[in-house]
Amino acid sequence: MRVALPLLFAATLFAQPQYDLLLKNGHVIDAKNNIDAVRDVAIKNHRIAAVGTNIPAAQALKAIDVKGLYVTPGLVDMHVHVYAGTGAKGSYAGDLSVYPDPFTLRSGVTTAADAGSSGWRNFPDFKDRIIDRSKTRILAFLNIVGNGMGGGKIEQNLEDMDAKATADVAKRYPGVVIGIKTAHYNGPEWIPVERAVEAGTLANVPTMVDFGTFRPERPYQELVLKKLRPGDISTHMYLDMVPMLDENQKLLPYLNEARKRGVIFDVGHGGGSLLFRQAVPALQQGWIPDSISTDLHAGSMNAGMKDMLNVMSKFLNMGQSMQAVVAESTWHPAREIKQESLGNLSVGAPADIAVLRIARGNFGFVDSYGARMNGTQKLDCELTVKDGLVVWDLNGISRDDWKTLDKHYKAQGANEWDGTLNSSVRSRK
Ligand SMILES: [Zn+2]
Question: How far, in Å, from the CA of 29 to the mean position of ligand 1?
Fold first, then answer.
């Protein structure tokens, strides 16, 4: 019998499926690789292993039929506030933030960049509290204010805007700190913008600007035409205060000049920053977003913004194509924050995937001033895969019907592809 053992071993090896997870027959939209067609996507060892036609289901430990659905890279939301749990009252470095996983994964978001809730002083606490404990890949723009978005006077303190200290911490966490942020400044000075750009230059990362109070001493036109570098980001692009349309509703020409310089324009919907009366006429004149982001926080998620899919759906209903909306929510933001392994389905990339459905019917969407826009399309997320593991499955499409299982069935799935069952459930024998 000794001779049988190597044979048995060889047979086991042979039977090992080539892939851990296979999504079959979905409509793949991958802007980086110019794919807009029905394809199968195969995953092995938490990475994209193959994208092709007719990959046999038998070659995977788990195959899921996603016919009729869109398969996109995991969504990249580059403006969120997720520094929750500190106890700080009325602050984005506290109560106004949300924990990411309960809001991201169910919306297809696998990567989210916190937009300046922490600064160089409290970034280590943010990292320990949130970044290191979340399933969602959390990246960060460091606030130019050392104490981050502590609210009130903290964010107005010019003394605490230290470009070098900020850049030093950014450089200590490459690939995690992906940019610098300035926000919420009320004064007439350019100092917050200048220090944030200086820190961005020192750390070789982009700077994102929330312009705070718009004041005549520092015109927005000057921000985007002079102060920002190519690759820097103006978020809240459809905000009320942004000069956008002339009295005849014509798009102001300086906007396209700024874009030509290489300045990036990002949605950052949030609680107060997207108005249909700005966005609809601007989009009709070609003023489309470079990237779509939510500005997710405790206030915006229960108001007009809701979630990433709702914001993307608004752009579908304002006339953008599914291909454009997906690109603006995946590859574009990944490129803007210089994380080019993300936001695409290239072989070897982390296996982050969203499986989306376009529901057709009568829907309503709400802007930041509480005005409604009627629409006929709305995105839902059926399945989210993060690093090769299913982390969200709305209708159980990765699951077997319980009636087909053994009457004493135990925990389903396998560690190679299933990230939804907690370990205590899986350990019950
Ligand atoms: Zn924000």
Answer: 28
